[in-house]
Amino acid sequence: MKRRVRKNDVRGVNITPAPVPTVLIADDDAAIRRVVVHKFQTSGFTVLEAPDGETALQAARQRTPDLVVTDLQMPFMSGLDLCLALRAEGPTASTPAILLTARGHILSDEQMSRTNIRLVLPKPFSARELIEHARAVLASSGGRAAGPGTRLNAA
User: Fold this and answer.
1) Statement: 16-154 belongs to CATH 3.40.50.2300
2) Where are the domains of the chain?
3) 129 vs 103, more confident
4) Burial 125-145 (b: 16+ CB within 10 A, else e)
């Protein structure tokens, strides 16, 4: 006798939440940081935030992010120095980064090769586009899938 399978019948299938990526936002401009944090949170990311590079490095040591979004010019430690420090540490050595800059700063090939910076984004920027870039960087780096959702695994 054949068993009828009803629509939405999930017996024999484990439903597990998709992993939510963690992004570390580092910017000394509180207004920009607040907007970026809010956009990432409403887009389904777990967010860590820091007002400067040193605080961001401490946060990354406590909880390894899947992605770092950092301003270039910050007090105590620049975004570039932050990315160099993250690259030098085991747990964060492969964590990709997006660098935000108000000066249209261009990184040399040598600077890029010493860091995990995948994109330099000039300010002002669209928060929506930043999220799209973040998802693309995570996808290309083999990071966790961006955004909320569920994954179905056959039991």
Assistant:
1) yes
2) 16-154
3) 129
4) eebeebbebbbebbeeeebbb
